[in-house]
Specification:
This protein is 31% helix and 26% strand. It has 515 residues and is an alpha/beta fold.
């Protein structure tokens, strides 16, 4: 009888726990993505946006006024400023710890200095760093990177599943010990494991891209909300001079495989926008409504949080002299991207610097991948800090001997994968987007003359693309002479800026786009 009573009592406790597993709750979700070590604000058209001290002010405000706050990151905290080059993510970890981030996706740039640098960040983070589709079984340094995590907000438990772009092995440096698992299957397995633990409110933190998020959600069961990154997509952003136009609604609602509508969230880049939305869940863990969806413009109207500002000042002291060192000046706006999808002026200048640095080796042209151009310049003084934020990766310059056919194939690959190759002065080509893949590029000119299919040209690339980054397999597999010069891309750019002062492009519109 006593045993029966104990069994009944235990059963009632379990049933009670299951029945009480979910209660209605309203949370305030705050989120960021692709901060890229932009600890300080970024200047656009004479105004500054972003900065960790302003973000801290927003977070503290919402924590004071809202009862249940969740803070998530869509990844790519690494790479982009002198702060990363100096602290390798630890300055960012200190900030994220101090304001209470609760989970982060592993972005591709988290691997830019290999698994061990990421491991140091993860070991210092006071929040889970997640990716379900990375197989890290052969990389013990990353044993603390998990597929999923459970966090508590208010009195309720929420499941978090991470995901990393499957292109990470092509666009970063995870090394041979990091493998990929199927994206859909691994994320669904993470969701299923959380549901088996009685967790029904499940968020994804992804670093796979805006459109990829939408396609993934359509095939998933059990997902509630997605906080994304990687594509640097502005959603619901206002029309501000110098800003790109919004590419979709904030949130973007997508139906999952259960028929439930799922908010997909992303907020551009560098902390210039900070995500904010209110989410209501019912007693079954279902998202029943959302409101107060506002991508917040982090501008000069938001004061710095004093505590965070003091922390940033301490981090800044060792790099201040280097960051502010003048290199040259420009009277022009040197844009990162062209409005027509062709070559941005900053990319033109980087390619010209690469060619200038390697011309003595016999190189007749240079190409920089568009993803290697991380910013532009406004008129005025040009500093070392600005240049390292534009070309932060520490790539070396590699020369390849390629036939004309191989050059054309490499350019075609760039058009197809988004890793477009921006040429140096004297080299041009045309893209027709209406034509099928593999036949979009024509009218190629190398060093002032129409390309000859069988002729061999010595051409300069970043070692990233020369080794197959951005899916440039033609360059990776090229059989001609290959020389890693050891010259650093940033050093080539600095020397070019110094020798072309005031700085201006030697030519523009090197890529013509039609269709």
């Amino acid at each position: 009888m006593i045993a029966m009573r104990k069994w009944l009592f235990g059963t009632l406790l379990v049933m009670s726990a299951i029945a009480a597993a979910d209660k209605p709750i309203t949370i305030t979700l705050l989120h960021s993505n692709d901060l890229h070590a932009h600890i300080e604000p970024t200047k656009i058209k004479g105004k500054t946006y972003g900065g960790y001290a302003r973000q801290a002010t927003l977070i503290k405000k919402f924590k004071e006024t809202e009862p249940n706050v969740m803070i998530l990151s869509g990844g790519d905290t690494f790479q982009g400023t002198l702060y990363f080059n100096t602290y390798e993510g630890l300055a960012d970890a200190a900030f994220m710890n101090s304001v209470g981030y609760q989970a982060m996706a592993v972005g591709n740039h988290e691997f830019d200095r290999g698994p061990k640098t990421l491991a140091t960040f993860v070991n210092n983070a006071q929040f889970p760093v997640l990716s379900a589709n990375l197989d890290l079984s052969a990389e013990p340094a990353l044993s603390k990177v998990h597929d999923t995590a459970i966090i508590t907000v208010g009195s309720e438990k929420f499941g978090i599943v991470g995901a990393t772009t499957p292109t990470v092995t092509n666009i970063s440096s995870p090394g041979p010990t990091v493998k990929l698992k199927d994206l859909h299957d691994s994320v669904q397995a993470g969701i299923d494991s959380l549901q088996k633990q009685g967790i029904h409110k499940i968020f994804l933190v992804t670093h796979i891209g805006y459109h990829e998020d939408q396609e993934l959600v359509k095939a998933l069961h059990g997902v509630s909300v997605v906080v994304g990154g990687h594509s640097h997509t502005p959603l619901g952003t206002p029309n501000i001079p110098g800003w790109p136009k919004s590419e979709g609604q904030y949130p973007t609602m997508t139906q999952n495989a259960d028929g439930d509508m799922v908010p997909i969230l992303q907020c551009w880049e560098w902390g210039k926008i900070f995500g904010h939305i209110t989410l209501d869940f019912d007693d079954k863990g279902k998202l029943v409504r959302w409101s107060h969806a506002t991508p917040i413009v982090v501008d000069e109207s938001i004061p710095d949080d004093p505590q965070t500002a003091a922390m940033i000042e301490a981090f800044h002291k060792p790099i201040a002299a280097m960051s502010n060192q003048p290199v040259g000046e420009t009277a022009l706006t040197l844009a990162k991207e062209a409005l027509n999808g062709g070559d941005g002026v900053m990319g033109d200048i980087i390619a010209d610097g690469m060619l200038a640095a390697t011309a003595k080796t016999g190189s007749v042209a240079a190409f920089v991948n568009s993803g290697g151009v991380r910013g532009g310049l406004d008129p005025g003084k040009i500093t070392y800090g600005q240049l390292i934020s534009i070309e932060p990766f520490g790539n070396t310059l590699t020369t390849l001997d390629l036939t004309g056919d191989e050059i054309k194939a490499a350019i075609e690959e760039g058009v197809g994968t988004g890793g477009s190759l921006i040429p140096s002065n004297g080299s041009t080509y045309t893209i027709d987007k209406s034509k099928p893949a593999g036949n979009r590029v024509s009218d190629i000119v190398i060093a002032g003359k129409s390309i000859e299919p069988s002729k061999v040209y010595r051409v300069t690339f970043l070692n990233f693309t020369a080794n197959g980054g951005d899916a440039h397999n033609t360059l990776k597999n090229a059989k001609g002479s290959r020389t890693d010069t050891g010259l650093i891309d940033l050093d080539a750019l600095i020397e070019y800026v110094k020798s072309h002062n005031p700085l201006k492009p030697e030519s523009v519109n090197r890529i013509s786009v039609h269709g």
